[in-house]
Design goal:
The chain is α/β, with parallel strands linked by helices. The protein is built from 14 helices and 16 strands. A 5-stranded parallel beta sheet has the order 5-4-3-11-12, with helices on both faces. A 5-stranded antiparallel beta sheet has the order 6-7-8-10-9. Adenosine monophosphate (AMP) binds next to helix 1 and strand 11.
Length: 466
Amino acid sequence: MLKLYNTLTRKKEPFIPISKDKVKIYSCGPTVYNYAHIGNMRAYIFMDTLRKVLKYNGYNVELVMNITDVGHLVSDADEGEDKMAKTARLENKSVYEIAQKYTDAFIEDIKKLNISIPDHVVKATDHIKEMEEYVDKIVKNGYAYETSKGIYFDTSKLPKYGKFLSNNELDNLKAGARVEVDNEKKSPYDFALWIKAPKEHIMKWDSKWGLCYPGWHIECCAMSQKYLGDKFDIHTGGVDHIPIHHENEIAQAIGATGHNLANYWLHVEFLLIDNGKMSKSLGNVYTLSDLEKKKIDALTYRYFNYTSHYKNKLNFTWDAINSAKVSLNKLRELISLHKDVNIKVDKLVIKEYEDRFLDAINDDINMPVAISIIWELAKKKEKSNDYFELIKKFDSVLSLDLDKNNNDKYQDKNQDVPEEVRKLLNLRKIARDNKDYLQSDILRDKLKELGYIVKDTKEGQIVEKV
Ligand code: AMP
Ligand code: ZN
């Protein structure tokens, strides 16, 4: 039976879906004012793995992910300059062009990571009406009030506010404390649902409260409940969302519908870089393209994510990612040795591995254990296509293209050759670059004498042992 750690109850719990037919999940998606970094990608790799674990367990899954193309502000609190507007100003583009550019880049990245596109990818700007109606419901139910700046959630109406998920010190929730504080707010903890747009604000919409724009938290309530119903199964996001964004989503849902929106709240721990935070000032906010520049492909990064449980911090270093690259290539190579070997494996042995794999993924998505089982199979002395097929089945969860040897386009195809051969190859490359074909042919013969045939391919020279 699948067990998941639920931030709501602070316990690992058996997963019981609302309906046996379909598990409904909502995942907080990217704010599209910049390229997503590899920390963000950890959250989406988790979202995808969770979805595939559920599918492996036989469930149908409906997954909704939002694209925040409005209203996520520079500060954690819901005031200050709009991040979208800031990038638009810096790149000299319209906010809509910025949103499109970074949404497209995001979709490209998640495809490279073998993340299946969610069933609904929904943009905030396409749901302004739904958000307005949502705010209206909260107001009508007496959980919000109007000031000259906007509509605020009245946190005093919910004694559990701040403790739904986080057991948070209320001080962390002081929305607006670090930026301009609205004196008309009844309490510093109250947060904006709907903001009256100052003249210079670019993204704004006509509403029953005049020209306004939505607060960030409202979009996830309005869109998740539109597509999945008032109550759905699972809500995911990174741990940074626990104390403010998700706490506020629950408050809003209670205000509008009288109850929490999701039964299970799952949170992914942070990716660290060199044991510290990712930050622009340290120049370590890496994207998938930065990894590609260093010949690390996206699936290597996905594999790297499986070296740690999603509830633990994961430390990224260049050394660690380079060893993940070597490991994944080695793993694929070992797996390929099982391919087409016509030896049968006892069904009971296969069943035992299937049970162990299922236990691992069902133990709160324990991917390090799942990976270790695959290694065990890959390393089996006796080769069999049955093992190959079994690993392929497990890979429907991991999505690492484990059945494709030499899949890493950045792999050094001549990894395992002796030093002497490598030197000759380097000399031959120089000769060919200088169009010195005579020298290049002499070197080809020398390589042959050492027992290596060299082929010239689009990816460069590749040697094979004769
Ligand atoms: P944002 O675009 O800032 O809303 O972030 C998108 C997703 O990435 C959210 O679920 C965040 O919680 C998550 N996230 C941001 N930084 C990291 C990180 N360093 N490690 C893991 N997840 C992160
Ligand atoms: Zn959200």
